[in-house]
């Protein structure tokens, strides 16, 4: 009988190949079981962590709910005692109101100031038309100037406010529709504090860099200044903090008006107050 070694070699190779495949399959099956066990352990651990986080979240939600309820109680108390909390705190103070918000109703702010004993020496609104460069020729003709850019017009407005004892420039600016003078005692140099009503453009952008800051840079001097805004209208309000001006973002609420009176009474507190994330505290207390 002829022995074919090629047959044996192929057979032995086939045996080892089958053995290798068997080992591989067995190993794979074992690994699959291990992986499944590992996955199950991971899922269990994730589920445990999720439950722990949910418990913490539920506790935080309950704590937050209780804090908000207490905050509402504080606001209700302030609203019911606004006059008492602010009574005569600003006696003898002379205040200027400079508004950059054409839609804002400043009556509640003026009432809060006068009820607390302050005298409003200047109340003026700066209109958006002040930054309109298309009417420079008309402005120059009316004012007898040679302005070539809006920055010069803004500087002229600021200078007219500082020198409000001469009422002619402000009157001309009002005729041009650049400002609205609601009251003017003509004694700007005697004013102690400035209340700035923040405003945004029609497109929702801040007026701070192009209009508000240039005017404040000229008129602020050493006068204590507070920037205010109604709830939901605080676009750009945080920019005032960069130039060391206190801010209030809820002046439409009693708490905001009480904060304003307290800040003006102190004349030295710098901080952010109100309801939004911009506000550090509801009221300027503990300073």
UniProtKB/TrEMBL annotation:
GO biological process terms, semicolon-separated: copper ion homeostasis
Transmembrane helix in keyword set: yes
Gene Ontology CC: membrane
InterPro entries, A to Z: MctB
Annotated TM spans: 7-29
Keyword entries, A-Z: Membrane, Transmembrane, Transmembrane helix
Protein name per Swiss-Prot or TrEMBL: Copper transporter
């Amino acid at each position: 009988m002829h022995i074919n070694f090629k047959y044996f070699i192929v057979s032995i190779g086939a045996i080892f190949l089958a053995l290798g495949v068997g080992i591989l399959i067995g190993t794979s099956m074992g690994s699959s079981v291990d992986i499944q066990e590992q996955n199950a352990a991971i899922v269990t651990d994730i589920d445990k962590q999720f439950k722990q986080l949910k418990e913490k979240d539920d506790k935080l939600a309950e704590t937050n709910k209780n804090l908000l309820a207490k905050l509402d109680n504080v606001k209700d108390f302030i609203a019911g005692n606004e006059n008492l909390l602010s009574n005569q705190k600003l006696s003898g103070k002379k205040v200027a109101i400079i508004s950059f918000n054409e839609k804002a109703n400043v009556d509640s702010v003026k009432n809060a100031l006068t009820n607390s004993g302050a005298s409003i020496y200047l109340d003026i609104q700066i209109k958006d038309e002040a930054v309109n460069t298309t009417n420079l020729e008309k402005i120059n003709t009316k004012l007898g100037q040679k302005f070539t850019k809006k920055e010069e017009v803004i500087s002229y407005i600021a200078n007219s406010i500082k020198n409000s004892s001469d009422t002619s420039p402000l009157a001309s600016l009002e005729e041009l529709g650049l400002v609205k003078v609601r009251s003017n005692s003509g004694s700007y140099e005697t004013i102690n504090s400035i209340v700035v009503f923040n405003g945004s453009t029609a497109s929702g952008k801040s007026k701070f860099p192009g209009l508000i800051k240039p005017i404040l840079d000229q008129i602020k001097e050493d006068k204590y200044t507070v920037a205010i805004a109604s709830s939901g209208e605080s676009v750009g309000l945080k920019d005032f903090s960069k130039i060391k001006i206190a801010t209030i973002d809820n002046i439409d609420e009693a708490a905001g008006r009480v904060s304003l009176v307290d800040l003006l009474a102190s004349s030295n507190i710098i901080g952010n107050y109100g309801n939004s994330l911009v506000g550090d505290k509801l009221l300027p207390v503990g300073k």
